[in-house]
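Escalation from tier 1.

The customer reports that the assembly of two entities below gives different structure tokens on two consecutive runs. Tier 1 could not reproduce it. I'm attaching the input and our single run for tier 2 to review.
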Amino acid sequence: MSEKPKLAVFKFASCDGCQLSLLDCEDELLAVADAVEIAYFLEARTDQIAGPYDIGLIEGSVTTAHDAERIREIRQQCKFLVTIGACATSGGIQALKNWQDADEFVRSVYATPEYISTLSTSTAIADHVPVDFELRGCPINRHQLLELISSLLRGRRPTTPSYSVCIECKRRMTVCIAVARGVACLGPVTQAGCDALCPAFDRECFGCFGPKETPNVISLTNHYQQQGVDGDHLTRLTRSFNANAPEFKEASDLLSGEPPLADNGDH
Amino acid sequence: MNSAKPLVGSFVRIQKRDLQSLVDELKAVHDRVVGPREIDSAIVYDDLDHVDQLPIGVIDHQEGGVYRLTHESSDSHFDYVVGPQSLKSFLFPPHETISESFRKDGQWEIQAVETPATRIAVLGPRACDLRGLAIQDKVFLEGPYVDPGYKRRRDALFIVAVNCRRSVATCFCHAMDCGPAVTSHFDLALTEMDECFAVEIGTSAGGVAMDATSWEPMSETEVAQAKEVSVELEESMRNGTSARQMETGGIRELLMDNLEHPRWQEVADRCLSCGNCTMVCPTCFCSSADEVADLSGDHVRRERSWASCFTAEHSYMHSGNVRKTTRSRYRQWLTHKLATWQDQFDSSGCTGCGRCITWCPVGIDLTEEVAAIRGE
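Tier 1 run:
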């Protein structure tokens, strides 16, 4: 039996983009495979080595009763459980269903709705089991993933920032599009980690890394409204990939006056 | 061309189109010449080859959280004031690898990274930013520990300063006694006149550079006219609405005697703790150093990056955060900038450039916060 730490990758409701970030570490992939045993990763290898695992990377959100059961079993199998990406960490874009009638979606989309068994909500992994670490993003940043693996191998804390995207914007000398052009940008309330990618390409931050530490989302949306930005636009901005993250949800519910139909704990 | 170089302390005149001769000369002796450019809806420093790349006729309008440019049909070369960048990034870069460590046969070998400085000539800094430079010089060069990278870059920096002819609503250099007239820390200082530039020679290197132009001596009357530009601007800043005001008398005691003032909570309710104010501040000097290891763990780089006192990480020490709330972080920043900086460095940490007001996404205004604590 190998003495290398065993790594497992599990998928829930998601697009697979975050798992792909691991395969996207092309230059470092051999070093990763050298450092850990990739024991369970359906997207990368057919062989499945049984648990327990040292590191479990969880992609995706909980949207079915089966998911809710499976994540409890996985938690028992994993020494260190890490959620990767916006879906696993806050519920993802699919958490938009939390504000809508999920049964009506099922009826209008599927020819045979009775085949579909789904919860009325999409929720974060941490709503179901204790999570040891979160890697944010839609998708995650592969450099942060490598930093996570590297730090776990050495038993130290990963160096992943929890401050704002603005700090990364200013470090790369990007002119602030909110101040210089009046574009509503979520950078000031969103966690860094993307190296401020979107503003560098002349578009606003849409919050895919989720709320930063001590986020003051309502102060920001109040200010944008005072500057003439439409409230519906701000509702859509805060209600996207991390719509279900508590601080974004609080702001969008205040802006729209509509709380979710189902309580998030309802699963 | 004159046969003698202009003397340090003297004023000379060049025709506006002759500014290109100076740029060409600076390009010949420096690795980079940078100047103000209109890029991405703002005036930023970037490489300058030709004078016609300057934002000629561009005017800036600044308010809390708002920066806009307009274009006028004038030949004014420098009638915008400060953009988001100061001189800070040239001397104290946002990211820098300061050392590398290699593990060989179980032994660590640590090497300092000593990148030779790029010789930069920068055209355009204003009085407030030169004061910012003086303050950062004190921080990085004049204490018991000299920052070697900063020193290399500082020694290689050539400065062509510009005297402002107008202010924007967020300016208050006059209140901080930092401007608008350029008085020190320059090689050359330009004042734009109707038909020419008046050029004050700050250093002998500046005199040498001017020798490449068709400079002409200025009469005492002409020198007085050039100096009047700053005097008139300062008067209008003091008396009008074209600038912020800040009463600085007794400001250290005012702030330090009011650490529990309710205003700190009021500003914290608006503050995003995003750190923009500290990033754009020409004097904020905090950094963090992270060890970045590769997967093998045999190669570690020490990376220094700009840090901010508005982040949780900055006030985390031996397993606890000493400033958990935005209230405590804003108070720390403002009291350091305006009060305890005096104890540490014998001056205020604020130059009145107004960037923290303009580039705050929600327009928080330190002059307003100080006035509120003063009870105005």
